[in-house]
Amino acid sequence: MNTNNQLSIKTLEEIIPHNDSVRILSQIMEELNYEKLMKAYSPKGRNPVVSPKVLFKVLVYAYMNNIYSSRKIEKVCRRDINFMWLLQGEKTPDHNTISRFRSNRISVAGEDLFYQLIKKLLKLKEIKFENIFIDGTKIEANANKYTFVWKKSTDKSEVKLQEKLRILIRTLNDELNINYTIYTVQDKITVQQVSEILTTLNKIKISENIEFVHGKGKRKSKLQRFIEQFDELAHRQGKYDNYNSIFDGRNSFSKTDKDATFMHMKEDHMRNAQLKPGYNVQIGVEGEYIVGLDISSERSDQLTLIPFLKNLKLKLHKTYKNVVADAGYESEENYVYLLENKHNSFIKPQNYESRKKNKFKNNISKRENMHYDEQNDCYICYNRKVLMPIGRKSKKSKSGYKSILTIYECEDCNGCEYKDKCTKAKGNRQIHVSKKFIDLRENSLTNIKSAGGILLRMNRSIQVEGTFGVLKENYGFRQFLTRGKENVKCEFLLLSFAFNINKLHTKMRKNKLGVSFFIKDIA
Known about the structure:
α5 crosses α7, α8 packs antiparallel against α10 and α9 packs antiparallel against α10. By secondary structure, the chain is of the alpha+beta class. The chain is flat and about 90 Å long. Strands 1, 4, 5, 6, 7 and 8 form a six-stranded mixed β-sheet that branches. The protein contains 18 helices and 13 strands. The N terminus is likely disordered. The protein starts with a helix and ends with a helix. The longest helix has 29 residues.
């Protein structure tokens, strides 16, 4: 470091206020362990242009100030005194260095650094690991809106392709006397099987010294036509196989970002319910700080709760006492997980709001409006007829969880004057009931109706929904810049890190505390 740089840093030290957010950021980040981040660099490669710790500080501070583009970050590093102070005389990183660091390095250590910050917040007594408020929001991906692939469309095309292959194999057997298996409708003809057919046909070509011709003319032999058709169909089947592996339980993906799923966005400017490629961003908030996050390609929140809580426990080695979430997270599987892991469930039932309305209360078809005789295990309908258990069946969810449903059937619906209002079935009315789910739902309902539960529900809307509001409106974060789930997660980790530091800085200014307060408490 030359003398001029030393002098300029001293000058910057005098200019920047003692309670500026950049000082809080720098101090807290000095306390973190960067071992995992350093491992992201090869020991055989050249030394980084800017030290990883300093570059991470620069990125987080940029996100604290709503600067997300790598080119804009490069520009402020040359012009803004706070960024110059963070660099401490090191070379100004160019946009390529910043972009590579965000995509390739932070993916290795980003989560580790973020959860180290959460543990610092615990030491500062900002959080207690007591109540976690969970919610999700859809954020648009950096993907082409018109390069989509749909599962239903792929399935229909694949069915037609399979039929073409069966017909082609029958024709091959008839015209060339090659006895290949004619597959049934249930059997799927794989690319491997088509490749075996092509291998046989190419052997015939070599053994009989048949020359192939170009173009689309009539000079082509039967053998050449068969080989070309099988080759084309094998290529198409391979494409559908690749699509199915990418879907991985989803109903769509974008060709320009295969991890992005087409979802309904709240920001629907055209008001036409247009689907856009995006990600389901999950966060957990406590004390107005983001204490956990995850990125999901699932449109539904229901399937995101368990992976989110498992990851949180793995990273923090802590278990939250109360889990507070809205109706989108309700499922038997989630209730069972919370019970088994000693979480108190404060999940609002999906029918919680509708049960308050007269339309629901007057609907005689609803199970909730029937009387349940616990002693005889039967339901009594509006017309005083008994629905008795006639059997059980299992139901498997998308995640593989199996729930047991008891089937209740009315003794006799014939001649019932209320049948049209009760059921559309031709026979007797049936209801399928998961007793475990009902018990767990009632337990969660009791929790949210308690005095503490009402307070937690109010806090949920303030804390977690308020956080999303701040990120979208104040931070202007409405679309990801990078592509792929891992890169997108790195972006949101940086944003969450920045959000937490800004929140801590706000508290510091409110209480008129200096950096020395945090140095003393964190040390």
